[in-house]
Amino acid sequence: MSKPVIDVERFWKTIERSAEIGGGRPGGLSRLALSDSDRQVRDEFIEWCRAAGLNTRIDGVGNIFARRAGSDNSLPPVVLGSHLDTQVNGGRFDGIAGVLGALEVCRALDTANHRTRRPLEIVNWTNEEGGRFSPPMVGSGCFVGTYGLQWTRDRRDDDGKSIGEELARIGYLGDQPASPHAFDCYFEFHIEQGPVLDRDGTQVGVVTGGYSSTGTLVEFRGETAHTGPWPMERRRNALVAAARLLVAVDDIGWDFAGSGGKGTAARLVAWPNKPGILSDWAQTVCDVRHPDPASAAVMAERVRRAIGEAAARANCTAEVLDTWTWGGRIFADELVDLVRAASLRRGYRTQDILSQAGHDAYMVAHHSPTAMIFAPCRNGITHNNLELCTREDLAPGLDVLLDVALTRADR
Ligand SMILES: [Zn+2]
């Protein structure tokens, strides 16, 4: 039995194979959740897991769990994972590095003929991005009970297809209910998706928590009418109500930008959205986030007020269909300390960092002790086909992932 080591070339080959599935703009991926390309990468991932001797199963919302047996399988597993779906203009590493990094950990243990005491488990969460079905992180959210099983399956994309229908179509509607089995702990390795680590020359980011964030899905209703003769004072243009809200959210972001706040107008759809006619329906997605929870709460309250004001100004009605929150300091101190210690022991340039993006880890943290490991990505570019990491950018984080997984699984 030798000491397990990460084989970066083996990991990189798997990343490159993944990057061939669901190609988008040059260099990037467009692998939307439960699309044909998502099915293809899931099929390959399961093949890779089987080849590594892992036992795979699929739950009722398509989350894939792949278990490597321990010497005492009565103990809950140490779980490592992330997501294989991407944004419509996504990169090759966001989420993918975490799932395939977990696979590399299992392969490294096999190569070293190392049997851990506790089982290890890899997870690929369904629809982390929310790029096709809103809200994001819905697979992990359903698993931990934040969202109901049927509610999750009923989420629909722009073409009216539901998560449940699409899971069945691609063969990933598992028979296991999406209810949580016990985890010993959960580690998620992920690229930072921000510029801090790359700028500072840091090799490993120790994620202490995340920006407190609130996303909102709002529907506005008005009345269709002719764009010419219809008097201004009688207009009920839902498109205008939605536009006013999105500008207000952007303004809120600017008002808090000095202290690190962000306000995002992410999406506007309207019907009929044609020349010559006022729209009687519009839907928006927006979010606000801030490193300080109190400021984040103020921003979220201002969004709530802005919804009413935007509707009133356009003489429309507004309904909040869904809100979702994530972030805060909800990771387990003991695990965060373990990540930091492992990185320093390896001699890597290390810093504590808050995540500004949403991750499945925030959902899982409601269920079991959780921590995240960040790797730098060039200039922080992400959700963009130009997202770029090298082997050297990812290798230190993979080493740390291996170390903390072993520490936990062998205790
Ligand atoms: Zn991600």
Summarize, please.
With 411 residues, this protein is α/β, with parallel strands linked by helices. The chain has helices spanning 8-18, 36-51, 96-111, 138-143, 149-153, 163-170, 196-200, 238-255, 293-313, 333-345, 360-364, 391-409, and strands spanning 55-58, 64-68, 78-82, 120-124, 185-191, 204-221, 262-271, 281-290, 317-328, 350-355, 370-375.
Structural notes for this entry:
With 411 residues, the protein is an alpha/beta fold. The chain has two domains: 8-194 and 357-409, Zn peptidases (Aminopeptidase, 3-Layer(aba) Sandwich), CATH 3.40.630; 212-327, Alpha-Beta Plaits. It has helices spanning 8-18, 36-51, 96-111, 138-143, 149-153, 163-170, 196-200, 238-255, 293-313, 333-345, 360-364, 391-409, and strands spanning 55-58, 64-68, 78-82, 120-124, 185-191, 204-221, 262-271, 281-290, 317-328, 350-355, 370-375. Strands 1, 2, 3, 4, 5, 6, 7, 8, 9, 10 and 11 form an eleven-stranded mixed beta sheet that branches. A hairpin with a 5-residue loop joins strand 1 and strand 2 (64-68). 54% of the residues are buried. Residues 83, 94-95, 128, 190 line the site of zinc ion.
